[in-house]
Amino acid sequence: MNKSKRCIAIAAILSLSSACSTSNTVIPETPVQTAKGxxxxxxxxxxxxxxxxxxxxxxxxxxxQKQEALIRFKSQSDMRELHNFTxxxxxxxxxxxxxxxxxxxxxxITYNGGxxxxxxxxxxxxxxxxxxxxxxxxxxxxxxxSIEVEEGTAEESRVTVVxxxxxxxxxxxxxxxxxxxxxxxxxxxxxxxxxxxHKAKANKK
Length: 205
What we know:
- A 4-stranded antiparallel sheet has the order 1-2-3-4.
- Helix 3 (87-99) crosses helix 5 (119-140) and helix 5 packs across helix 6.
- It contains 6 helices and 4 strands.
- By secondary structure, it is of the alpha+beta class.
- Residues 1-22 form the signal peptide.
- This is Lipoprotein.
- Residues 30-53 are annotated as: Disordered.
């Protein structure tokens, strides 16, 4: 009888020891808390990644058809490609030429009227004396609010286009004259370029 009791006691002790040993090896899983208290791990969301910002271009302000026409003109120098461009569109072409630093395109769309020097001289003087100022102009008006023909200035072969940009309480505008030549609205701006050249040369003395 005593022997049976001892066997039962030993069996109970072994069972208890086994239970304690097992409980010591169990590690409860604790959910990871995120900054907002969520118990689920954060997964990467493709929409969280910043998309690359598309660079501004005056060229892209033109319709796809006019963009293609301008590209053809640059490669072929055929003025007929520009025959259907409005005065406002030619101002955009002008600002595009300034933004990419293309004196060749600028020369081609500048009203001549017998006043322009040869292309090589124009290029040299423009790049040395006027390019920096014009580049700043292109940057200044890149987020323009409006571009339109000035009321009361439209004539058969002469017109003024005003481009306007606003920032907070400030408003800046630039008026550019255009004249028809070779059936194309060209920028009547050589007198402005000459002013920049003369000022730059005077400052060098």
